[in-house]
Amino acid sequence: MKKILLHICCGVCTLYPIEKLRGLGFYVEGFFFNPNIYPYKEYLKRKKVIEKVKDLIKIKIIEGEYNPFLWLDVCKDYKEEKEGGKRCFLCYELRLKRTFKVLKEKKFDYFTTTLTVSPYKKSKAIISLGREMTSSHFFPIDFKKEDGFKKTIQLAKEFGLYRQNYCGCIYSYYYSSSLKK
Question: What are the extents of the domains in the chain?
Fold first, then answer.
């Protein structure tokens, strides 16, 4: 059985992709690496949901370091951009590169990411980025297809999981907060 490392952005976006990958015959482990999440309190909320998911579906999760300064260093010059621009691309790249590094260290066959399940993320750009890093180890899958996003929402409701209303970064946090006013 081939081993795949699944980069996980949050608990809600995890359930369907794991189900899908297992259905394709993979042994799946998760990698929770998201230095973009702001504030730290939000990171802890999302981590708690990951722990719940881990117990619900019996999956091993590797937790990456939480270092928001690493993310800020990469994305600070693009703070004025709206979601979906260069800042987001750099954020995807940071997280995929770290996932690929863990793949090599832990000897997985493939890696992919839950980021493609979101209708707010550009799946083609994410898949292209993964392929550029390594065409032989990146598993290109758009989890949004076959109603993937809808399934994540249904599963989250079924299991009573916290569902955030912004991508996680400081800039989207303030943008989503300004919309509520």
Answer: 3-180
CA-to-CA dists, residue 37 to 21, 151, 171, angstroms: 25, 24, 10
- Alpha carbon dihedral 39, 40, 45, 50, in 10-degree steps, equals 120
Phi (first) and psi of residue 83, to 5 degrees: -60, 135
Structure-block tokens of residue 62? 């590797």
pTM here? 0.95
- Looking at domain 3-180, its CATH class is alpha beta
Rounded CA-CA distance 80/162 in Å is 28
The per-residue pLDDT string of the chain (181 residues; one tens digit each, 9 = 90 and over) reads 999 999 999 999 999 999 999 999 999 999 999 999 999 999 999 999 999 999 999 999 999 999 999 999 999 999 888 888 999 999 999 999 999 999 999 999 999 999 999 998 999 999 999 999 998 999 999 999 999 999 999 999 999 999 998 889 998 888 776 555 5
